[in-house]
Amino acid sequence: MFKAESNSIKSIINKNWQQIHDEQPADEAVKMLGSEALVRSLMAENVEIMFGYPGGAIMPTYDVLHQFQKEIKHVLVRHEQGAILAAQGYARASGRVGVCIATSGPGATNLITGIADAQIDSTPLVCITGQVHKDLLGTDAFQETDIIDISMPITKWNYKITEAREIPQVMARAFFIAKSGRPGPVLIDITKNAQMDFLEFSYKKCLHFNSYLPEPTPKEQSIKDAADLINAAQKPLVVFGQGVILGEAENEFKAFLEKSGIPAAATIMGLSAINNDHQNHVGMVGMHGNYAPNLLTNQCDLLIAIGMRFDDRVTGTLNTYAQQAKIIHLEIDNSEINKNVRVNVPVLGNVKYTLPQITDRIIEKTYPKWREEFSQLHKQEYDAVIKEDLTPSKQALTMSEVIDMINDLTQNDAIIVTDVGQHQMAACRYAKYSQTRSLITSGGLGTMGFCIPAAMGAKLAKPERTVIGIVGDGGVQMNIQELGTIMQTQIDVKIIILNNEFLGMVRQWQELYFDKRYASTEITSPNYQVLASAYNIASAKVSQREKLKHALQTMLETDGAYLLEVMVGQEDNVFPMISPGDSVSDMRLK
Amino acid sequence: MQHNINSTFDDTKKDYTMALFSRNRAGILNRITAVFSRIKLNIDSLNVSETETHGVYRYSVRVNTTEKLVRRITKQIEKQVDVLKAVYATDDLIVQQEVALYKIPSEVMIDDIQTEDIIRKHNAKILRIHREYTVIEKTGHKHETQALFDELQPYGILEFVRSGPISIGKINY
After folding, report:
1. Hey, of B3, B25, B50, B69, which one would you mutate to test binding to chain A, going by the most A CBs within 10 A of its CB?
2. Which of A80, A92, A544, B121 could form a disulfide with A102 if both were Cys (CB 3.0 to 4.6 A apart)?
3. What is the pLDDT of residue B9?
């Protein structure tokens, strides 16, 4: 017998299949060009802003965008990778679907890194690419690239539109699939003829798509089993990920924590789901996370994983990961269950709906003795690492003290957008949050060059909030062309370059694991002040501790974009650290 | 409990047959095979055809791998938006059949009495006789279609094709 999980194959297929047939257009149809239908589809999905770059195969759509510039703001970027990373920043800050648009060929392939990033970090995106006329497909036409096949393994869904009449239904599906269930990027490739032909347009939002089950329903028994394990636990630990934020389950999560009394540690992607000062918050797990939650992962008797996926940067070696504990996994994506870590009780579904059911069944508890273990280990981390990070005894500035001062000056209220590397770890360790969706970072893919475009997107999503990009001297040079977008669109982002004149994280690994052979990690920088002024962006540079506060204050008080370069210790390392291949309990403090 | 998924299953490789059901859409086959090629897993055979439900396609995929991996990729395939269902089974739980076609020169059918015996013995069928060639059909497991191949080979096989197995679960749902 095939191992169908519960029902028979046939009944599942019939059930899924019969739901179709109500996707027919409902409104009265209006005759229009495909390009207009595409733009009107975006308007029907309440798209207010999109990021893109024009080119031959997408020109008919740009022509219509020009007519509708009051309805949809189009941000002209300087490179298509900037467009998709900005769309991600927008999506991550707002919770809405980010939209980007590019032409065929190189325009489309330049989106690929961003698509892979959005896929691994579950960011809802709709990416639109132009394509050559359908009669030219397969002929190696000018700027023809088979972007559908290239993007297949890194999109949640993709589709090539070759006829104008397909546009409304496919666009409706694209937005539904991108946002529902475990979100992800959807790519729609649209041939030039489909943009230039007429169709009878009417739009109906997609509410379901047969063959696609966005949110599985949890088994009643698993909710009960989870609650029983929680009620019996002596030393439980919660590890929460982005599932809490994506499920908009922050309140449900808080209610669960407050009733259960269980200490909770974030993955990088889970940061800011609850405020740092929440009584249950015990820091961050993972390679450069906090000492206490990492070590105590191997001491707890129950691990409750909420909307996270046991990434290898979180677990260290699996051989020694939480072997003593029972594990409950609350997860929307069935393929994550038992992928890396075998769990005792899987609870499938959106945590927004599963958590309250568990909260209802658990008894109110506190764990003073267990919490004491966290405090003691935290004190060790404070003495060995945090104290020197935040109040350094040496002359050079540390990345961490810069982050800490930002917390003070913004009352923990800024949206922090990072790039990838040492400064990212410093930001994730020390930045404080007072609202959800306040940390935007490339978690799964580790995409350098993420910061500047993602910060632009975040600011356009949340104009009322202060958006601060924290970037290294390596990453800033990877999408530095987007300063041009900031200039043209007048985006009020504050960018802080933490400059150690090295590709710091790789250099740290070279120091620790490659006998200090610094292969290609020394990197020079341009004069950022001259560069910023070329882009008409205010800027400053600071390298002395006594001038740091004033420099940051000036940055925050200046209207418009600002670039602040902070010179930091050249060979500082990020600690604590779980060396690759080590166990979470072997985390080193130095 | 051993939580490391790598050590909860043994590393023995076995033949698995997967049954996958998808919408009929250009590109979905690539989406499915990409899940295999991502981990450099060879597909031993693949058979795709429409099911009794119009618009739903069934894939029979044979792979030789570990249970840990077949479980993981089955879920990763089922996760695809256009896939309705994905399941897997070992050989003891399914009934399988495949068909093979053999094209041999007609002259050996006429001249050599042995070929008649071979066809009888293997319970094979003759589909077409042309003055140049004869097409023989044999259904059965791979070792059975192979056995006929081996016996016909000395007489000269002009062309040979095997469909790859299709399979059905043993227990009635």
Report:
1. B3
2. A80
3. 78
Q: Give the class (CATH, top level) of A220-374.
A: alpha beta
Q: Do B56 and A13 touch (CB under 8 A)?
A: yes
In terms of DSSP H, where are the helices of A316-367?
351-361
Q: Could you tell me which residues come within 8 angstroms of residue B9 by beta carbon, excluding any fewer than 6 positions away?
A: B66, B67, B68, B71
Asked if A32 is an active-site residue, the reply is no
Residue A386 gets which letter from DSSP? Answer: I
pLDDT greater than 50 at residue A6:
no
Report the top-level CATH class of B95-169. Answer: alpha beta
Contact A577, A290 (CB under 8 A): no
Return d(Cα A355, Cα A244) in angstroms, integer: 10
Q: Which of A505, A555, A577, A587 is catalytic?
A: A505
Tell me: the pLDDT tens digits for B83-113? 999 999 999 999 999 999 999 999 988 887 7
**Domain extent listing, chain B:** 5-93, 95-169
Q: What is the DSSP annotation of B17-46?
A: EEEEEEE--TTHHHHHHHHHHTTT---SEE
pLDDT of residue A1: 47
Distance of CA B72 to the CA centre of its chain: 21
Instruction: Give the whole-angstrom CA distance, residue B96 versus residue B140.
Output: 8
What does the pLDDT look like over B116-143, one tens digit per residue?
Answer: 899 999 999 999 999 999 999 999 999 9
- Ranges for all domains in chain A classified under CATH 3.40.50.1220: 220-374
Where do we find the tokens 């600071």? A542
Q: Write out chain A residues lying below 8 Å of B96, CB-based.
A: none
Q: What share of chain B is helix, strand, coil (3-state, %, to 5)?
A: 35, 40, 25
Judged by DSSP in three states, A587 sits in coil
Class of CATH domain A21-201:
alpha beta
Question: What's the rounded Cα separation, in Å, for the pair A452 and A470?
Answer: 9
ipTM, interface predicted TM-score of the complex = 0.91
Fold held by A391-567: Rossmann fold (3.40.50)
Q: Which of A208, A206, A268, A260 is nearest to A239 (CA)?
A: A268
Where do the CATH 3.40.50.970 domains begin and end in chain A?
Answer: 21-201, 391-567
Q: Is B95-169 in the same CATH topology as B5-93?
A: yes
Convert the pLDDT of each residue in A158-211 to its tens digit: 999 999 999 999 999 999 999 999 999 999 999 999 999 999 999 999 999 989
Q: Which two tokens stand for residue B59?
A: 């894939």
Is the separation of the CB atoms in A326 and A197 below 8 Å?
no
Size of chain A in residues: 590
SS3 B124: coil
Which fold would CATH assign to domain B5-93?
A: Alpha-Beta Plaits (3.30.70)
**Is the confidence at residue A14, as pLDDT, over 70?**
no
B15-65 residue pLDDT tens: 999 999 999 988 999 999 999 999 999 999 999 999 999 999 999 999 999
- Token duo for residue A325: 């504990």
Residues of chain B with C-beta less than 8 angstroms from the C-beta of A318: 3-6
Q: Give the closest-approach CA distance of B59 to chain A in angstroms.
A: 13
* Nearest residue to B16 via CA among B65, B75, B59, B69: B65
Residues A82 and A481: beta-carbon distance below 8 Å: yes
Dihedral sign for Cα atoms in the order A31, A34, A38, A39: negative
Quick check: A11 contacting B, CB < 8 Å? yes
Q: Which two tokens stand for residue A163?
A: 């006829």
Q: How far is CA B50 from CA A3, A76, A180, B43, in A?
A: 21, 46, 29, 20
- Which of these, A279, A239, A263, lies nearest to A373 by C-alpha position? A263
Q: Do β-strands B125-129 and B133-140 pair in parallel, antiparallel, or remain unpaired? A: antiparallel
Helix/strand/coil (H/E/C) assignment for every residue in A136-161: HCCCCCCCCCCHHHHHHHHCCEEEEE
**Structure confidence by residue, pLDDT tens digits, A297-314:** 999 999 999 999 999 999
The structure tokens listed for A42 are 């975006």
